[in-house]
Amino acid sequence: MSETNLLTQLEDMQQKALQAVSAIEDEAALQAWRTAHLGRSAPVMQVFSNLPKVEKELRPQVGQRANQIKQALEAAFTERSEAIKQTSLQRALTQAALDVTLPGRRPVHGRLHPTTQILREMVAIFAEMGFQVFLSPDVETDDLNFGLLNIPPYHPARDMWDTFHAATPGVVLRTHTSPGQIHAMRAYAPEPVRVVLPGMCYRYEQTSVRSDMQFQQVEVLAVGQHITFADMKGTLEGFARRLFGNNVQIRLRPSYFPFTEPSGEMDVECFLCGGKGCVICKGSGWLEIMGCGMVHPTVLRNGGYDPEQFSGFAAGIGPGRVAMLRYHIEDIRYFWANDVRFLEQF
Ligand SMILES: [Zn+2]
User: Fold this and answer.
1) Å from CA of 275 to ligand 1 middle
2) C-alpha 63 to ligand 1 mean position (Å)
3) What is the CA(33)–ligand 1 centre distance, in A?
4) Which of 18, 30, 54, 148 is the most buried (most CB within 10 A)?
5) Is 36 left (phi over 0), alpha (psi -120 to 50) or beta?
6) How far apart are CA 80 and CA 72, in angstroms?
7) Nearest-5° Cα angle at 313, 265 to 296
8) C-alpha 60: how far from chain center
């Protein structure tokens, strides 16, 4: 190969390489170009390794030119690389542009369960009357759930509650919030007690539109000296008027619970028919909202109070029942079915 030819070839090499690089649009192609034109086996690199074979007089000239070309190609590579980066940045900015004038996407808000909303409303009313919230366990002993509440073993009253029993004998899921009465009295005795006990209760029952195996309940308990039936009536009536409206008709009628004596149930006038009688109130014109009564002397004693000196009243109200009445919900099983279409309405 003649040396003049070699110089011509070098010029040709440079021209081709620079032409090729100017057409490159992406990073991968640019890397391939670099390997081809600046890599170990690139033509210009071959010139360097073949330099000892070049005629002595021409060697400096060829070497110098090859060096210049190598530098020119490296500069071209850097320049193209920058240009490609700029182009892809521009593309990213325009294609994924954020239009700050567009309305935002509203996040989906969670909400409180309808019975929790009612429960909080109820607790707030009692709080204003000086009642504190007292929490007691969902898992109870047979004794606390029944025995200490004046429901001894084999007492026929136990038929009123179908119970979930734990594998450990004598341990049950509470069937009502009433065992909390014993917990609260034992925590406060001999001081007076004024508490509400909200929580979940569990019953081993065939579910139907009117009964489910779990439901919330709020227990009300007041114990002190000189507490009378009139105090109970006044407190519960005041509560019912706050919850259902000032003009609602209320009635208290006798009932039976093993842990209260005397016992009663409170009804409010049916708000659908205004007392005339309809499907919801089954023609009676009244809707039952709670059970109540004066705390039984045995229960007082089990709580640590002397029934000769102390008296008290208790009541139990179901927030679920109140929610059903207020929103005309016809099936109690909707509450724990976890159907968003139902829950979203509240
Ligand atoms: Zn009615």
Assistant:
1) 6
2) 108
3) 87
4) 148
5) alpha
6) 12
7) 90
8) 79
The CA 245 to ligand 1 mean position distance, Å, reads 16
Cα of 116 to ligand 1 centre, how many Å? 25
Q: DSSP 3-state helix, strand, coil percentages of the chain (rounded to 5)? A: 45, 20, 35
**CA–CA gap between residue 286 and residue 267 (Å, rounded):** 6
* 205-248 pLDDT, tens digit each: 888 877 788 889 999 999 999 999 999 999 999 999 999 888 88
pLDDT in tens, 23-65: 898 889 999 999 999 888 888 888 888 888 888 888 888 888 8
**What's at 298, amino acid-wise?**
T
Can you read off the two tokens belonging to residue 309?
């000196």
Distance CA 268, CA 262 (A): 20
d(CA 176, CA 317): 10
pTM above 0.70, yes or no: no
Among the listed residues 254, 121, 119, 126, the one whose alpha carbon sits nearest the alpha carbon of residue 196: 126
How far, in Å, is the centroid of ligand 1 from the Cα of 132?
34
Going from the Cα of 269 to the center of ligand 1, the distance in angstroms, rounded, reads: 8
Cα of 71 vs centre of ligand 1, distance in Å, is 96
Which amino acid is located at 279 in the chain? V
Among residues 229, 232, 243, the alpha carbon closest in space to that of 128 is found at 243
Write the CB contacts of 2 (distance below 8 Å, at least 6 apart in sequence): none
Contact partners, residue 319, CB within 8 Å, separation at least 6: 115, 116, 118, 119, 122, 198, 216, 217, 218
Residues with Cβ within 5 Å of ion ligand 1? 270, 272-273, 278, 280-281
CA distance 212 to 219: 19
| Tokens found for residue 183 | 């917990």
State the distance from the centre of ligand 1 to the C-alpha of 261, rounded, in angstroms: 30
